[in-house]
Amino acid sequence: MFTRIEESAYKTQGFWKYIIQELVNHAPLYKNQVIEFRLVEGFTPLPEFSEILDRSNPNVPTEFEIWDDKKRREDRGSCLNFYIHAKVKGLCYVQGSRTEDGSPLNTTLQLIVSDPGKIYQEAQLLGIAVPDFELFKVGNSSLSPQFDEVSSKIIWGDKIIEIEPNSRHFYICKVAFNKPINNPISWDEIADAEGGIKGKNSFEKRRKVNFAIHQINKKIAAKTGRKLFAWKKLTFTRLT
C-alpha cells in the first residue's frame, strides 16, 4: 500500500495552521528554543492521508494490506515525519520525533526554532494573531522582508504590503526575492518573467521597469519608512 499526504486538502491546511498556532503559543520565540508537542490521531489535527493499494504485487493479498494496522500506522508516521521536515524548513528544524507503538497514531515532536521572525510572518499569512512584542517591529535587523507569491504580499515585520497579482510589481518581487540580497538584476529579466513589455525600444521598456520599482518603493515606504530596491544604471538590487 502506498501512503501519501494530500497537501492541498482542507485537513492538511488545517494541520499546518495548527502547527504554526502551537509555535506562536510559546511566544516570545527565540532562536534555538526547543518546543515539544504531541500529535494524536482523533485528538489533535492531522493531515489528510491517502492510502492507495499496490496491485503490482500479486503475492500480497489486498486483505492483508488493508488489515495490517501496524504497517499502515508506520507508513503514516513516516509520511508525517517527512512532511513536517520539509514544511518547517526555514522556520524550525526537527530535533526528533517519536511514534508510539499501538493504535491510534501517536507522535511526539521536538522542533528547534531557527527563525522566529519567519514563524510570525507565516502566522500572519494564516490569520493567526501575533503578540506585539518588540522583536516583531520593522527596523529589527534580524527580521527580513518576505514575499509570498500565493497571496501576493510583502511581509516585513508586522507590516503587510499588498502587491497586485500578475502585475509588473508582482514579477519584480518574484524575480528579486529569488535572488540574493544586493545581487544585480537586469530590467530584461523582469520583461522575460512578465512575458514581454510593450515599448518602442529598450530604453522605453527599461524606463517602465524603473518606474514600477519606484512605485513599489513608495508603497513600502508609506508603511515602513524604508525602501526595498535600489536602481543603478541598467540594473537594480534588493537591499534587504
Strand content: 15-25%
**Classification by helices and strands:** alpha+beta
pLDDT averaged over residues: 83
- Helix and strand run: EHEEHHEEHEEEHEHHEE
Helix count equals 7
Outline, from the CA principal axes?
elongated
Estimated helix fraction: 25-40%
Distance between the termini: 47 Å
Tell me how many strands there are: 11
Task: Explain what this protein looks like in three dimensions.
This protein has 240 residues and is α+β, with helices and mostly antiparallel strands. The chain has 2 domains: 2-116, no CATH class; 144-238, Winged helix-like DNA-binding domain superfamily/Winged helix DNA-binding domain (Arc Repressor Mutant, subunit A), CATH 1.10.10.10. The chain is 38% helix and 22% strand. It is built from 7 helices and 11 strands. It has helices at residues 10-24, 62-67, 69-87, 116-125, 168-176, 187-194, 202-224; strands at 2-5, 34-40, 49-52, 92-99, 106-113, 146-148, 153-156, 159-162, 185-186, 229-232, 235-238. The strands form 4 sheets. The chain has a 3-stranded antiparallel sheet with strand order 2-5-4, covered by helices on one side. Strands 6-7-8 form a 3-stranded antiparallel sheet, covered by helices on one side. Strands 9-11-10 form a 3-stranded antiparallel sheet. A hairpin with a 6-residue loop joins strand 4 (92-99) and strand 5. Helix 1 (10-24) packs across helix 4 (116-125), helix 5 crosses helix 6 and helix 6 (187-194) packs across helix 7 (202-224). The longest helix is centred in the last third of the chain and has 23 residues, at 202-224.
